[in-house]
Amino acid sequence: MKVLYDREFISQLKKLDVRIRKCFREKIAVFQNNPNDPTLNNHPLKREYQGSGSIDITADYRAIFKEL
């Protein structure tokens, strides 16, 4: 699986605390190996994000993705 990041996302990620960035890297590694891992709480989104999914990074942060 190849993961691509939006430029705006990368700039926002750089502004976050180091612990959150570390957690993000760990969760993305899990996502690449097993997108359906229960720790990610992978689920589809609705309304304006229809066709996208979301995974938990921390209790307060989520990553939204779209499979191509």
What is the number of helical segments per DSSP (H or I, 4+ residues)?
2
The average pLDDT is 92
Beta-strand segment tally: 3
SSE ordering = HHEEE
Low-pLDDT sequence parts: none
* Molecular shape: globular
Biggest sheet overview: 3 strands, antiparallel
Q: How are the strands of the largest sheet arranged? A: 1-2-3
Keywords:
three-stranded antiparallel sheet; alpha+beta
Q: How would you sum up this structure in a few lines?
A:
The chain is an alpha+beta fold and 68 residues long. The protein has helices at residues 7-14, 18-33, and strands spanning 43-44, 53-56, 62-65.
Describe the structure.
Helix content is 35%, strand content 15%. The protein is globular, with a radius of gyration of 12 Å. It contains 2 helices and 3 strands; from the N terminus they run H-H-E-E-E. The mean pLDDT is 92.
